[in-house]
Design a protein that fits this description.
- The protein is an alpha/beta fold.
- Helix content is about 40%, strand content about 15%.
- It is built from 13 helices and 13 strands.
- Strands 3-2-1-4-5-7-11 form a seven-stranded parallel β-sheet, sandwiched between helices. Strands 6-13 form a two-stranded parallel sheet.
- Helix 9 (about 285-295) runs parallel beside helix 13.
Length: about 350
């Protein structure tokens, strides 16, 4: 006879709850199977997390929520628009998910094991003074709110982990330097945004383990950098964007999701961690690889005027770059699935 133990019947301090009746006629083999199933249920419950996520409706956030739910964790989506979030996470496909607008964030964060903060207005857009202000404020405002709610949570229900996004724009741009987590910040607009973004997250209670993930250019299906690059690529015969000499520090969507996921549960993941693949490339090589995968020629550069027409001042995101290496992730032994851009592009576009 095999007995499956419901997790709610188990006590954390006893092997089996006194309320669970075990027939006296169990054989030794049956009793062993009972212990195995109960032990598995206990282990699953012990490893189950409740995670609150801002930016859950974004490119990375959607995939992270799917990964958490696939592993039977509880997810609380913290959003400014419940109706938008419900379209992305319909109840029939995402049973048990909690979606809360800002008035309900406090109740969600209290009792969560961890918070993932991914919120922020996309930077690959036309920049105006108003947009630049919103790019910065959208990140700082949400991060500040999350940090305040964590810090004000009673000790017993306070999350113990905060994984907060930032970006490789922290380092500024260079065609010659190599940046790792110990490198100083740059002096341009995006570096300033990232410094203030990180400084806000660092105000979290010192008992909360904080991982700051400096995310590179994320490559994946149906969004991210490729959605912006491919139309330009097709119009201009697949040539490099700008000079092509600028560095392109990329990461596959699956790897950045797995890195964030690992940071939630692994206590070694703390402080700044670069969310980039181990092999950054020049943008000209990126375009060559993209041309090969798409079976398109790659020779005519996309002129600056076309980039500025599409992205305005935001074109600096692709016209300038930085060579960022994930020293901390490699030290921690993180298993990158896509170490080379050729393999990443094949998986995305095939």
């Amino acid at each position: 006879m095999e007995v499956f133990c419901c997790p709610t019947s188990l006590s954390w301090t006893h092997l089996i709850s006194p309320s669970l009746h075990i027939p006296q006629s169990f054989s030794v083999g049956e009793a062993n199977r009972f212990r195995v199933f109960c032990g598995a249920a206990q282990s699953q419950k012990a490893n189950q997390m409740t995670v609150s996520v801002t930016g859950a409706t974004g490119f990375i956030g959607k995939r992270l929520v799917q990964r958490l739910l696939a592993d039977n964790h509880n997810v609380r989506v913290l959003t400014r628009s419940k109706s938008k979030a419900q379209l992305i996470f319909p109840v029939k496909n995402f049973p048990g998910i909690i979606i809360a607008e800002e008035a309900g964030w406090k109740d969600c964060i209290e009792g969560s094991n961890a918070v993932v903060n991914l919120a922020g207005m996309p930077i690959s857009t036309r920049w105006s003074p108003e947009i630049k202000k919103e790019i910065k404020q959208s990140r700082i405002r949400v991060t500040s709110k999350v940090v305040d709610l964590i810090n004000n949570s009673p000790q017993g229900v306070r999350p113990t982990v905060l994984v907060s996004a930032t970006a490789v724009g922290y380092y500024g741009t260079s065609e010659t330097q190599v940046f790792d987590e110990s490198s100083p910040s740059g002096n341009d607009y995006l570096a300033e945004v990232c410094r203030e973004w990180e400084a806000t997250a660092l105000k979290v209670n010192k008992d909360v383990r904080l991982a700051l993930i400096r995310i590179g250019v994320v490559l994946g299906k149906d969004g991210g950098a490729l959605a912006k690059m491919i139309p330009l690529f097709m119009m201009f015969a697949g040539g490099p964007l700008g000079s092509g000499k600028q560095w392109f520090s990329w990461i596959h969507l699956e790897d950045i999701v797995n890195l964030i996921y690992e940071a939630l549960s692994n206590p070694s993941y703390r402080g700044v961690i670069n969310g980039t693949a181990p092999n950054p490339i020049r943008l000209s090589e990126m375009c060559d690889q993209l041309g090969n995968v798409m079976d398109r020629p790659s020779w005519l550069p996309v002129p600056d005027f076309a980039l500025k027409a599409a992205l305005g001042e935001g074109a600096s995101v692709v016209r300038e770059g930085q060579r960022v290496v994930p020293a901390k992730a490699k030290e921690l032994g993180f298993p990158f699935k896509y170490r080379y851009v050729k393999d990443a592009l094949k998986s995305i576009l095939s």
